[in-house]
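Supplementary Note 3. Input sequence used for the single-chain structure prediction.
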Amino acid sequence: MAIYMTYPDALNLMQSWTTSESLQRHMLAVAAAMRAYARKYGEDEEKWAMTGILHDFDYEKAPETHPYKGVEMLREMGYPEDVLEAIMGHADDPQYPRKTRMAQALYAVDELTGLITAAVYVRPDKSIYGLELPSLQKKFKDKAFAARVDRQGIIQGAEELGVPLEEHLQFVLEAMKAEAEVLGLAGSLRGESREG
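The predicted structure, written as discrete structure tokens, is reproduced below.
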């Protein structure tokens, strides 16, 4: 019997291994996007969100062995093989092809959440609520902006998932807007009404 089985358990594990707030927020963003895609495809939202929350949990403590050692640890804890395969697939290692929709979704949203977060951080109000698709597309095309973001990976991820790039960008943006408070992306609107 697996010992994890709840999203809060996975969240606690991630937080116990990761002190960097920005890395924690990245995993929360990926989990939000994964949950939204699971809902879209009629899949298990908790499992997909756990996959997102854990995909980089070992990165801070063991970047040289990420995600291999982390996956070994998760396997010993009883996490399902499809979760582990998805996490391995996000490393873009040819030995671990992305065969499942969950693995494809994780790869597709990973870099994109980073681009969206960077686009929010340069906004005057530091809020995701006003970020719209045309602005995001402009940032995507500007190779000097958030230069470390793997744009080809985002394109390839959308293709593997079978979603047009524009639709993928919009979908992940909306998923992150829905979790703006948790992700620290509500900006000056935090705690205030978004209307008016």
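The first helix runs from residue 7 to 17. The chain has a mean pLDDT of 93.
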